[in-house]
Design a protein that fits this description.
heterodimer; A: 489 residues; Beta-Lactamase; Helix Hairpins; 5-stranded mixed sheet; 11 helices; B: 225 residues; alpha/beta; Rossmann fold; 2 domains; 5-stranded parallel sheet; 4-stranded antiparallel sheet; 8 helices; 12 strands; 22% strand
Chain lengths: 489, 225
Amino acid sequence: MSSKAANPILRSAAWRISLWASLAFAIGTMLVFGMLHRFVASDIQRRSDAWLSGEVGVLSDVATRTPKDRLYRRVVGEVAELASREVPNHQQSSSNENDAVFFLQAGDNGPAKLWVGAGDGASNLAAIRSTRMAPDVPFDLRVKGFRIPFRVAAVRIDDGSSIYLGLSERDEIHVLKNLRVRFFTLWVAMVLLGFAIVFYATRKMLGRVSEITEAASRIGQSDLSSRVPDTKGDDEIGHLARTLNHMLDRIENTVHQLHTITDSLAHDLRSPLTAIRGKLETTLATDLRPDHTEAIVTSIDELDRLTEFLNTSLDVAEAKADALRLNRTEVDLDELVRSMSDLYEPSMSDRELQLEVHSEGPVRVLADAALLHRVIANLLDNELKHLPASCLICISLRSDEHMATLIVEDNGPGFDAEVGHHLFEQRVKGRASRGHGLGLAFVEAVVRVHGGQVAATNRNEGGARITAKLPLCRIQEREQPEALALVST
Amino acid sequence: MRLLLVEDELEIQSFVKQSLTDAGYEVHTAEDGKTAAILAAKNVYQGMIIDLGLPDQDGIDLILQLKKSGMMSPVLILSARRSVDDRVKGLELGGDDYLTKPFAIAELLARMRNLLRRNSPPTEDATRLRIHDLDLDMIKRRATRGDQVLNLSPQEFVLLEYLCRHAGRVVTRSMLLTEVWGMRIQPDTNVVDVHIYRLRGKIDTEGREPLIKTLRGIGYVLKGS
C-alpha cells in the first residue's frame, strides 16, 4: 500500500467522504460556538451594566447629600475610588493603578467639576459631550487616546450637573478573546481528529469493498472456485460479500454440472471408440487382403475424425458457456506461429500455396498453449482445404499496449456471401467445404474465453481475413497463477 | 518385463493386453483398484498402465496410494476424460505419462517403451546414430546415407532422428506432432504425411532400399537394423 503514490489516496472515496464529513462537523461546531459566544458576551455586558447602574446610583446619592464645601471633592472622590475597586471581572492592568474606571461630575457646559481616574479626564468629558445618550441606560463611549471603549452610566443630580461612571470594556473583551482563542485551538484539534477518525474508518470499510472487487475480478478471470473474503460483520459489506459468494456458489454449481455432463458424455463415447479403434488396429496388424486393409484404414480415419469432432464440439459447448477449463501458461505467439508455419509449409507448397509470416519478435500472451495450437492449426487447415492453387497466405503478428493481434489472410476467393455473418456459428460451412463446420466456431470460442475477439471479413482487394485479438501477458498476471496456487492450498 | 494393466472395460483390456503380449511383455491385469493394489503388493512390475475411471476408486488415487507404498515403476495413465486433470499434470512432471482415449496402439507401445527406457540408463551413443547405411552425426547435425551426404533442413533432421531412435517400431502422426513439433493437435489435413514424403524423397532415392515405410491407418516405421 505505502509503495503506491499519494494520488490514489486523494482520489479515493474515503478521502472525499472524510473531507465532506469534517467540513460539516467544522461548520456545525462553528455555528454552535457563535451562539455561545453571543450569549456569553451579552451576559457579561448585562452584569457590568447592572454594576454601573447600581454604583452610579450610590454615587449620585452621595453627591447629592454631601454638602458642597471644601470636603465635597474629597468625600465624593473617596467614595468613587472605593467603588472602582469593586469592579466586576477585574484583572490587574499592566499600566497605572486604575485606568479601568473613571468617575466624572460635570455640568452641561464648562470644565469637569470632579474627576477621579487616570489622566485629567478632558478627553473623556469631550467624548461624553459629543455623544447622544439615552437617559438611565448605559452606553458605549469611545475616548480619544484609549483603544478600548468604556461603558458609561449617567445620572443627573439636583444641582443640574451629571455624574458619569465609566468602566473600560477591556476586561470583557479580554475574557471573550480568551474564550475564542481556546475554542479555536480546540476546534482545529477536534476537526483534525474527526477527519482522521472518519478517514480511518471509511478507508477500512472501503478497503473491504476493494478486497471484494479484487477477488471478484480474479474469479471472473480464471478461478471460479475461490471466493471473495467473507467478513464476520453483519453490515452492508458483509451482506455484499455473502451475496456474491452465494451467487458464485450457484455459478460454480452450474458450471460443474455442465462439466459433469460433457465429461460423462465424452467418457461414455470414448470407451466404445477406443475399443473399436483397438480392434480395427489389431486386425490391421494381421495379414489381410489389400481391399480389406483399405476398408479398415478408412474406418480408422473416420473414427479419428469422429473423435476430433466430439472433442471440438464439447469444447465449443463449454466455451460458449464460459466453462472451458484453461491451463494458462505464458505463450510466445511469435514462436508458436513460426513452428506452425514450419509444420504447414510443406503441405502448402505441395498445393502451390505460398505461406508468409510477418512478425517482429516475441509477443507473449497468457493462454492455454494446447488450445492455441489447435486454433492456429484450425485456421491453417481451413486455408489448406479451401484455397485454390497459387494463392498467398499471410500470417501477421502485431501487438499494441494491451492486445496481441494475429491476422491470417489470403488472396483467394474469400468467404461465401451466403455464409456471411454466420461464420462463427457451429455447423455453418460453405457448400464446397468438407469439414464438420466447427473450425471457426472453435476458434471464436477459444479466443473469447481468453478475453479476446475474432473478426472475419473479406478483404477489399479480394480474399479472406481473420483477425484474432488476445490480451497481452502483463507482469502481474504472470505472477497470478502462483498466487492462486497459494490461495487454493 | 512384467507390466500391470488396470482397466475396467474388458474390451479395451483384452486388446491392450494382446498387443502388449505381442510386443513381448508379460502382462497382469486388474479390473479395479483393490485387485490392482493386491497384485502390486505381491509382484514387482517394471511398469503400469492405469485407467483413471475405475469402478471402485479414482485412478489417480490408486497411483498416489501405490507410490506412497514405495512403488517406483513408471505409470502410463489412460484417460477418457476431456481435460487433463492438474493432478495428472503433476504425475506427468514426476516422470509418468498419459494418453487420452481413443489412442493408437502403436502410440501406447511407444510411450510405454519410452517410460521403461527413462528408468534405465541410456545405452545409445549420444553423438552418433547408425541405422543400416544411415549415419546421423548429432553434433554437426549432418546425415549421410552410404557415402552420400543428405541435404536436410534442421526440421527434417529432427524428424529423421526421431524415426531412427524408434527404428523398427511404429510411430504415429500424433507422436510425431508431440515429439518433433511439440504440439498436441489433430490436424484435419495431412500435414505430417507431407513432411514424411519429403524426407523419404531425400533418403529413399532411386536404386536404394526404401527405409521409411507407411503403415496406413497407423503411422510410419523406419526399418530397424
